[in-house]
Specification:
It contains 10 helices and 14 strands. It is an alpha/beta fold and about 280 residues long. It folds into 2 domains: about 140 residues, D-Maltodextrin-Binding Protein, domain 2, CATH 3.40.190; about 90 residues, D-Maltodextrin-Binding Protein, domain 2 (3-Layer(aba) Sandwich). Keywords: Signal.
């Protein structure tokens, strides 16, 4: 009997030791889950913006009490979920986005970036996750409100966001345009227009649609389909996700997901983002 008791005690201790050991081995697994660090401005509605709650599925911004949401966050959440990552949103200013990818501070940028040749020299891009047409915005009472082409904007004062094709490529195509210094952000260029410091600004259609919700007196000037439209290449209106050239595996994985989505899917997600942006409520 004593031998049996001793054997049982030994057996129980062995099992307990095994379970404890397994617990110690499994505990780090949760903390070591893969994290996808995604950078964006968190201030470029409807692509991305900052809000104070997690309403509509907003994601916490790293090292902040605020949350991020918008089309880019919706896309980031989808990518992270499908690829098995935990998602971390990193808020950076526009000029810091590409350097952050290059340095490895973040894994990718999802921030409404055009896939330009200049950027492709520094980072890799996925296939497009949105296709954005170029438009102008003006105030409804402006003499340019009836413009039907860029020629009708001749001589007007204008600005746009720093480091974008809107400012670098499109505005110079307007005859004799008085191009003022570029603005640091999309909200800043909208303020410049609303305060009538400029006659019009150049942007893309999603940004313009979001803007007229916040500023109902503004008017979208869409010259698409006319012979007097901005001349831009496909790469300049294709919006992509930038990834480090040292991480082709991530680019490939994201492309595999994007291949399952259609233009209608992109447009539907964008309309959803526009409908819940803070200033549309």
């Amino acid at each position: 009997m004593k031998k049996t008791t001793v054997l049982l005690v030994v057996l129980l201790l062995s099992v307990s030791g095994l379970l404890i050991a397994q617990g110690k081995q499994e505990a780090p697994a949760a903390s070591q889950a893969k994290v996808l660090r995604v950078a964006m401005e968190c201030g470029y509605a409807p692509y991305n913006w900052t809000q104070t709650t997690n309403a509509n599925g907003a994601v916490p911004i790293a090292n902040s009490k605020d949350f991020a949401y918008g089309y880019d966050v919706m896309m980031a959440k989808l990518i992270a979920e499908r690829l098995g990552y935990a998602l971390e949103i990193v808020k950076l200013d526009w000029d810091s986005l590409v350097p952050a990818v290059q340095s490895g501070t973040v894994d990718c940028v999802i921030a409404g970036q055009s896939i330009t040749s200049e950027r492709k020299q520094m980072v890799d891009f996925t296939s497009p996750y949105y296709y954005a047409s170029i438009v102008c915005l003006t105030n409804g009472d402006s003499k340019y409100a009836s413009a039907t082409g860029i020629t009708d904007l001749a001589g007007g004062s204008a600005t746009s966001q720093l480091g974008t094709i809107w400012y670098d490529t499109c505005l110079p195509q307007i005859p004799n345009a008085k191009i003022l210094p570029a603005q640091e952000s999309a909200p800043a260029m909208l303020v410049a227009l609303n305060s009538k410091r400029v006659d019009f600004i150049c942007t893309d259609m999603p940004t313009a649609k979001a803007a007229i919700i916040a500023y109902p007196s503004m008017k979208i000037l869409d010259f698409a389909g006319s012979k007097d439209d901005f001349q831009v290449s496909e790469e300049e209106i294709n919006i992509g996700i930038s990834v480090s050239k040292k991480n082709p595996e991530l680019t490939k994985a994201i492309n595999s997901l994007l291949d399952t989505l259609t233009v209608d899917d992109f447009n539907s997600m964008m309309e959803s983002a526009i409908s819940v942006q803070p200033l549309s409520n």
